[in-house]
Specification:
The complex is a heterodimer of chains A (113) and B (118). Chain A has no helices and eleven strands. The N and C termini of chain A lie far apart (36 Å). Chain A is globular. In chain A, a hairpin with a 2-residue loop joins β5 and β6. Chain B is built from no helices and twelve strands. In chain B, β7 and β8 form a beta hairpin. The chains are: A mainly beta (113), B mainly beta (118).
């Protein structure tokens, strides 16, 4: 089954404790992206990647890191999480064509206390 | 910079009535426009897209959307709403002529909650 898999689904952590949210897709997609969803703000793009070793900032990259060492994986790293990063996070992938729709994972709900 | 606005936080309709969820956009060049739907505790699912050509686009689950270049709008419509259509709907835009890797930026609206009453 074609899918984007995020782990974990739920994560509660404390301020300053480094964490990684994993994202993997099995569709051989070149393009991958991370979004955060907050009430009233919709989805805001954090980082995206057009292909292996090619990443770029979205609209809200501060406090986040990403890497794209393999085509299928695109982990999101929070080196020193803060409470304002409490949010619902989505990973998505697609072909690297501007008219290609995104396939989304089921989300990771992160709480930073 | 590109942007999307969904002017209504909520839309309420009765089952069987037509529905419209509004979206307006702003891009430098020509737009690629998308609609996605989100059900509780799930990721977003693609509904339909506008690239170029016909201004009325048909998508999944009986939804369609009307592109209006002069009004920079891309409203989502359905002739007869179902209770099962109740969900959160997002409009998104990408600039078709963004150079280099810039077309990787896909901007979403803030979402509209659609509630269809029996």
């Amino acid at each position: 089954e074609a899918q984007v898999t995020q782990n974990p689904r739920y994560l509660i952590t404390v301020t300053g404790k480094k964490l990684t949210v994993t994202c993997s897709q099995n569709m051989n997609h070149e393009y991958m992206s991370w979004y955060r969803q907050d009430p009233g703000l919709g989805l805001r793009q954090i980082y995206y990647s057009m292909n292996v070793e090619v990443t770029d900032k979205g609209d809200v990259p501060e406090g986040y890191k990403v890497s794209r060492k393999e085509k299928r994986n695109f982990p999101l790293i929070l080196e020193s999480p803060s409470p304002n990063q409490t949010s619902l996070y989505f990973c998505a992938s697609s072909l690297a064509r501007p008219n290609s729709p995104l396939h989304f994972g089921n989300g990771t709900r992160l709480t930073v206390t | 910079a590109q942007s999307v606005a969904q002017p209504e936080d909520q839309v309420n309709v009765a089952e069987g009535n037509p529905l419209t969820v509004k979206c307006t956009y702003s891009v430098s060049g020509n737009p690629y426009l998308f609609w996605y739907v989100q059900y509780p505790n799930r990721g977003l699912q693609f509904l339909l897209k506008y690239i170029t050509g016909d201004n009325l686009v048909k998508g999944s689950y009986g939804f369609e959307a009307e592109f209006n270049k002069s009004q920079t709008s891309f409203h989502l419509k359905k002739p007869s709403a179902l209770v099962s259509d109740s969900a959160l709907y997002f409009c998104a835009v990408r600039d078709a002529y963004a150079g280099g890797t810039s077309y990787g930026k896909l901007t979403f609206g803030q979402g509209t909650i659609l509630t269809v009453h029996p």
